Every structure is written in C-alpha cells, then in structure tokens.
C-alpha cells in the first residue's frame, strides 16, 4: 500500500507539472478551475502503466472555457502518449 501511494503521489506531481507546462503555452484560463484525479489515481493505487484518468472542473461553462480546456486536454494527451502511455 505504501509503495502504491508513493507512486500515485509521483504520478500526481507529474500530471501537475504537465498541466503547468501546457498552461504556459496558452493564455490564462478564462475561468477558475481544478483538476481531479479519477480511477486508480483517486484511490491512491497507481502503478506503472496505469491509465491516467482525470477531469477538469470549471467554475462556469462557456464556449471560451470549453475551447480552452479542450486544447489543454489535447496537448496533455500528446504529452502523456509521448511518455509511452496510451
């Protein structure tokens, strides 16, 4: 359990870094938001080759906000695939 929890924390930090790097490529977010881990990440049970499942929670739905987070999601998908994850 301790190893899985430690690995999960590392994956969470990696995802935070990837999101932050991606945001540097784009203008500031048009709304307040949060990212939420799902699946094995939310249970603290990630291991190598676990699915990377997460969601963005946004303050208010608008076309501008949806477009922004779709762009972030697409860039993140490419970054994660580049790490060898599908």
| C-alpha geometry | globular
Radius of gyration: 14 Å
Low-confidence stretches: none
Strand content: 5-15%
What structural class should be given to the helix and strand makeup? mainly alpha
**Main sheet?**
2 strands, antiparallel
User: In which range does the helix fraction lie?
Assistant: 40-55%
Task: Measure the end-to-end span.
Answer: 25 Å
N-to-C SSE string, H for helix and E for strand: HEHEH
How are strands sequenced across the largest beta sheet? Answer: 1-2
Determine the mean pLDDT.
93
> What's the quaternary structure here?
single chain
Characterization of the model:
- The chain is mainly alpha-helical.
- The chain is 55% helix and 12% strand.
- It has 3 helices and 2 strands, in the order H-E-H-E-H.
- The chain has helices at residues 2-24, 40-43, 63-82; strands spanning 33-37, 54-58.
- The radius of gyration is 14 Å and the shape is globular.
- 9% of the residues are buried.
- The mean pLDDT is 93.
Concise description?
This protein has a two-stranded antiparallel sheet. Helices cover 55% and strands 12% of the residues. It has helices at residues 2-24, 40-43, 63-82; strands spanning 33-37, 54-58.
Summary keywords:
86 residues; 3 helices; 2 strands; 55% helix
Topology (SSEs and partners):
Elements: H1 2-24, E1 33-37, H2 40-43, E2 54-58, H3 63-82
Antiparallel strand pairs: 1-2
Helix pairs in contact: 1-3
């Amino acid at each position: 359990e301790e190893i899985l929890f430690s690995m999960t924390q590392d994956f969470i930090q990696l995802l935070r870094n990837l999101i932050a790097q991606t945001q540097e490529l784009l203008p500031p977010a048009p709304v307040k938001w949060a990212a939420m881990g799902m699946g094995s990440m939310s249970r603290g049970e990630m291991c190598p080759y676990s699915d990377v499942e997460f969601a963005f929670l946004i303050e208010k739905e608008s076309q501008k906000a949806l477009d922004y987070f779709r762009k972030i999601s697409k860039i993140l998908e490419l970054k994660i695939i580049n790490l060898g994850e599908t």
